[in-house]
Design goal:
Distance between the termini: 32 Å
CATH class: Alpha Beta
Number of strands: 8
Strand order of the largest sheet: 1-2-4-3-5-6-7-8
Order of helices and strands: EEEHEHHEHEHHHHEHEH
Length: 319
Amino acid sequence: MAPAPLADPGTYEVTVHDEVYASPGGTDLLARLFVPDGAPAGRPGVVDVHGGGWSFFDRTVDEVQCRGLASAGAVVAAVDFRQAPAGRWPDPVADVAAAVRWLKANAERFALDPAAVLLMGGSSGGHLALWTALRAEHPECRAASPDPSDGAENGDGAGTAGPDARVRGVLALWPVADPGERYRYLRRREADGDTDSRDPLFNIPFLTEAQRNFFGDEAGMDAAGVPALLASGDHEPPPPLVLVHPELDENITAAMTAALADAWRRAGGEAEVLHYADVPHSFVNFGGPAADACVADLVAHTRTILTSPLPTPSEGVPT
């Protein structure tokens, strides 16, 4: 079944509700569902992964982009996941993968096409979305299972019953794709006394502490880097990638975004970078004309992704 084509943002009214999608270690994780009223069956699905330094915020903060995509006809699940200090790397990628499986397992209920599910994430959530897309059926992404309607094992086990966690594409908004490089960039600026910023969300002590709390140390940050993962070859075929880079972003530099796009292409994937002038890190979350333009672009690029050939799954999965 071909996925239903997306309309323009604002076409459909959107119903919002929360559901439990997984319960690792007995802790319920919620997904906020944005469901387009009256959109045709075969809807695309999007799992949204919020930012916040792997430590803060929840499923509610990406309302603008989630509602925007849903109003064009996609079913969007904005998910909570394990965060620092209770959660550490790689706990959240298991949760994100479980959310993809859960959404696919509920395809009939939401009238969506399970072969048309994408990941979307901003900042640290972009990092988690990218990693999950590349390692969807690898061990760290199989450590939590959907709860409980598809019959998958729950809790801390590695049950994998039901759909896989592979996705058709990734919408990565200002992602922290290389945590080690970002950490060293922050430390260099701190050492140089270069702490003033045109980006209101640029706070070196907050950002560096958040990374240490989640990854433990610089070696852990490097091990979680997406460019290094791409270079290793130990990953799924990279699905199409759309990168959003704000001009005033100083949390993530333009060079970091370009390096990720280059690494993605070298690994055989398609990557397109969308630049937005005069806006800072996380600008879409705050709404306004630039946010509306970005949401329209995300919808348009999702249409393109859904008409591209399906990625060919890797042969075998490491255990």
